[in-house]
Amino acid sequence: MRLAAALALLLAAPAAAQDFIPARGLLSDKEFHRIVSCGAPVYGRCAIEPRAWPRDVALDVSVSRLQDVDPVSSALSAQVDLAIDQAISQINGAGARLQLYRLPDNRPARVHVSVRSPRSLTILTGEKHHRDLPGGMVVFAMSDAGEIDRVNIFINSGVGLSEVRSILLEELTQGMGLPYDISDPEYRRRSIFSQETNAVTVLTGQDAAVLRLHYPPTD
């Protein structure tokens, strides 16, 4: 399935479709992984089939930023550039069998990052109000074999500069096949997957552990 088809499926989804899973208290690594990878509540069933890059591709995931189609301040643009490099470094250092590298802007890549205005994102998401928009979003294009083929990451140009690093790290990590957030007070200051905050800027603890579970380093 190519990007156009994936976008069509995204737009066809109900506007209220839940992309986060509520939980309470600290979870085991396995429970946390099931939440962020397939949307499974504790002791519940997966909402989607788990997705991942093919084994041979996982060690060769290219990332490129696309030219802005909407007005973007120079300060935001510079922050996004820095955040892409920092996110790649964090993911590569997590100990998973996964390696990303950056290509020059506007090059064909497996992962494309672009900054879009709130107006553009309301069209993409079907949301009626700018206040309902996320700071970023990931769109997957899946292969016929059910593996990740391409990923598009959209960053909301309306976010604060202080949030960009956390948002970019979250979206790029989610683009590795971990698309769900978690709504749990225990994770607000400890996880990039927290639904409520954009405060975490490093991959440590269970955030790094779920990447290793998804891409086992000795597999």
Molecular structure report:
The chain is built from six helices and seven strands. It is of the alpha/beta class. The protein has one domain: Collagenase (Catalytic Domain) (3-Layer(aba) Sandwich). Helix 2 packs across helix 6 (205-214) and helix 3 (74-92) packs across helix 5 (164-174).
Question: What is the element layout, followed by pairings?
Answer:
Layout (H helix, E strand, L loop, with lengths): L2 H10 L7 E3 L6 H10 L22 E5 L8 H19 L7 E3 L8 E6 L1 H8 L10 E7 L5 E9 L7 H11 L6 E3 L21 H10 L5
Parallel strand pairs: 1-7, 2-3, 2-4, 4-6
Antiparallel strand pairs: 5-6
Summarize the structure.
This protein is of the alpha/beta class and 219 residues long. The chain has helices at residues 3-12, 29-38, 74-92, 118-125, 164-174, 205-214, and strands at 20-22, 61-65, 100-102, 111-116, 136-142, 148-156, 181-183.
Radius of gyration: 16 Å
The strand order across the widest sheet is 3-2-4-6-5
Percent in helix = 25-40%
* Quaternary organization: single chain
Strand content: 15-25%
CATH superfamily assignment?
Collagenase (Catalytic Domain)
Structural class: alpha/beta
Order of helices and strands: HEHEHEEHEEHEH
Number of strands: 7
The number of helical elements comes to 6
Mean pLDDT: 88
CATH topology: Collagenase (Catalytic Domain)
